[in-house]
From TrEMBL:
InterPro entries: Creatin/AminoP/Spt16_N, Creatinase/aminopeptidase-like, Creatinase_N, Pept_M24, Pept_M24B, Peptidase_M24_C, X-Pro_aminopeptidase_P. Residues 9-141 form the Creatinase N-terminal domain. It holds the Pfam family Peptidase_M24_C. This is Aminopeptidase P family protein. The keyword Thylakoid does not apply. GO terms for cellular component: cytoplasm. It comes from the Bacteria. Its EC number is 3.4.11.-. Residues 541-601 form the Peptidase M24 C-terminal domain. The keyword Protease applies.
Length: 601
């Protein structure tokens, strides 16, 4: 009989730990590639606890358990996880290692799956556990998998070719660049374990993780430009083999760990952030020397070439039509009170599909009405779904996966009848002013995203308010909607990437926001491309941004008296571009709606 309750699942895990003579076990949201989003087979934390967020961990001891989430999920974890089974802990204030030190006794053996955690995590938690005489030990086979009776199998979907028409560079060129880096650094090989890195390097895509077009696989790239691809044979078509060519050897994914053990005497680069601890352990056990270095594909992947840049422009122009049609539909139908959050998300998907060429959405649509809009990472489901109330704010954060590029856009709109409150208009306009400051920023080469972050927050700070998430993240080319290394976020705020230098060709989101708990939320998000600036008399190289996203912003929520003349000019220029890009693709009532919403302030 399948275990239906989380209490039964937790008890079964504890019994399995006893059988293995373990006193505890750590369960992260992770897979063997340290992916942000994971396949259904790797949703171990959700199966055990009921928590459906995208970041979190649990620690289970034989007599107690805790779940660890950050501030984005404070409300969600309490809605989804039974506090009688798991105590709630908040990161970064609380850590798993600290909790274990407080709750595990002398001699306790705490298990972990070395293929789900980074080496740094293992070292940190081991040190904290050792302070009280406890020991962190790798398990042979995940004990949770042993009790998860109906655990899904990993996806067996075939891998796809991403043509040079969209990549702008062949896989051979990319491998040669990585080989040059390996030789310059004195390495024999690099393990490429992040799924989007594998996809970028070999110009392949897949459908193994929802909304992220990657195939479950690993690559070992060698200093002579050759590579080994470890992937399930069921995923490999004759066309894929031909695309990869003779320089790429295809091996079964299940042989990866054993293959690492055959690299005795080799110096192998491993990314400490994206390679699980099991990779380094297997290499070292086989006699290889591990050098912890950043994945050499990350920076070239982030700096989009001209073909990828144009692909993003094309994808955004197509996506903008779908989102604009959706906003018209919301404006006309939601005031009835008969449209709910799930129906809105479904309608937006319908508009995107109608335009053709959509491969997937780029993440679960955040369709958030009223107080739900105050949850930055709200995910609507059958249990949380509510009608969009008339006379309220509706926030929709969504994106599409197109062969030419990945989109991500947030629009916040007023749903009539009536008018938004003075407070709503004030907060929306302050968010808009910050958004404009990022869009218009000019900065010297060498600047990092963290140095720009305050541009977006300054007008909110003047009112004594702020938002708890970053201002911008990188975006892939028909890859992950969250792509590093760059980020616009507070320096020292615990968000990796804020100190990364920005380079021309990098794509970022521009998404300041404001959230009033239980009442409403506001976010305005466009994607922006980092570009060179031609400044007469400039002393050194300067950069700025080109906006990629063109969809009307809701003027109902704007308090014009808070805008400067320059900001009004920005608004009018932006909407003139929206008209120029979208109007040739629209007609009839859609075109009339667009014309109305692109009129100057």
């Amino acid at each position: 009989m399948l275990m239906q309750t989380h209490e039964a699942r937790l008890d079964a895990l504890k019994q399995e730990l006893k059988r293995r003579e373990l006193d505890g076990f750590i369960i992260p949201i992770s897979d063997e590639h340290m992916s942000e989003y994971v396949g259904a087979y790797a949703q171990r934390l959700e199966w055990l606890t009921g928590f459906g967020g995208s970041a979190g961990s649990a620690a289970v001891l034989l007599n107690t358990a805790a779940i660890f989430v950050d501030g984005r999920y404070t409300v969600q974890v309490r809605d989804q996880v039974d506090e009688k089974l798991f105590e709630y802990r908040s990161v970064p204030k609380d850590t798993i290692g600290g909790w274990i030190a407080d709750h595990a006794g002398q001699g306790a053996k705490i298990g972990y799956d070395a293929w789900l955690h980074s080496r740094a995590w293992v070292n940190t938690v081991s040190a904290q556990a050792a302070k009280v005489g406890a020991e962190l030990v790798p398990v042979d086979g995940n004990p949770l998998d042993a009790v998860w009776q109906d655990q899904p199998e990993p996806s067996d979907a075939v891998a796809m070719i991403q043509t040079d028409e969209h990549t702008g560079r062949s896989s051979a060129e990319k491998r040669a660049e990585i080989a040059d880096w390996l030789k310059a650094e004195g390495h024999d090989a690099a393990v490429i374990s992040a799924l989007d890195s594998v996809a970028w390097l070999l110009n392949i895509r897949g459908s193994d993780i929802a909304h992220t077009p990657v195939a479950l696989s690993y690559v070992v790239a060698h200093a002579d430009g050759t590579a080994e691809l470890f992937i399930g044979s069921e995923k490999v078509t004759p066309e894929l083999s031909q695309h990869l060519g003779n320089a790429v050897t295809i091996r079964e994914r299940g042989t990866f760990a054993d293959a690492l053990g055959t690299m005795a005497g080799k110096k192998v680069a491993v990314d400490p952030n994206y390679a699980v601890a099991g990779i380094a352990q297997a290499l070292e056990a086989g006699g290889a020397t591990v050098s912890f270095e950043r994945d050499p594909t990350i920076l070239p992947r982030a700096i989009k070439n001209p073909v990828e840049q144009q692909g993003h422009r094309d994808a955004q122009a197509r996506d903008g039509v779908a989102v604009s049609r959706f906003l018209r539909w919301i404006e006309e139908t939601a005031p009835s009170g008969e449209v709910d959050e799930l129906a809105a998300a479904a309608k937006l998907l319908e508009f995107r599909r109608e335009l053709g060429n959509l491969k997937d959405i780029s993440f679960d649509t955040i369709s958030a009405a009223a107080g739900h809009a105050a949850l930055p990472h709200y995910k609507v489901d059958e249990d949380s779904n509510i009608p969009i109330p008339p006379s309220s704010i509706f926030l929709c954060d969504s994106g599409g996966q197109y062969p030419a590029g990945t989109t991500d856009i947030t629009r916040t709109v007023w749903v009539g009848p009536g008018e938004p409150t003075t407070e709503m208009k004030d907060r929306f306009t302050r968010v808009l002013k910050g958004h404009i400051q990022i869009d218009r920023a000019i900065f010297p080469q060498g600047t990092c995203g963290g140095q720009l972050d305050a541009f977006a927050r300054q007008y909110l700070w003047e009112a004594g308010v702020d938002y708890a998430h970053g201002t911008g993240h990188g975006v892939g080319s028909f890859l992950s909607v969250h792509e590093g290394p760059q980020r616009i976020a507070k320096l020292g705020g615990g968000q990796p990437g804020a100190d990364e230098e920005l380079f021309a060709g990098m794509i970022l989101s521009n998404e300041p926001g404001y959230y009033k708990a239980g009442e409403f939320g506001i976010r305005i998000e466009n994607l922006i491309l980092t570009v060179q600036q031609d400044i007469e008399g400039a002393e050194g190289e300067y950069l700025g941004f080109e906006c990629l996203t063109f969809v009307p912003i809701d003027r109902t929520l704007v308090e014009e008296t808070l805008l400067t003349a320059d900001e009004i000019n920005w608004w009018n220029d932006y909407h003139a571009k929206v008209w120029d890009i979208l109007s040739p693709q629209m007609d009839g009532e859609d075109l009339a709606w667009l014309e109305k919403h692109c009129a100057p302030l």
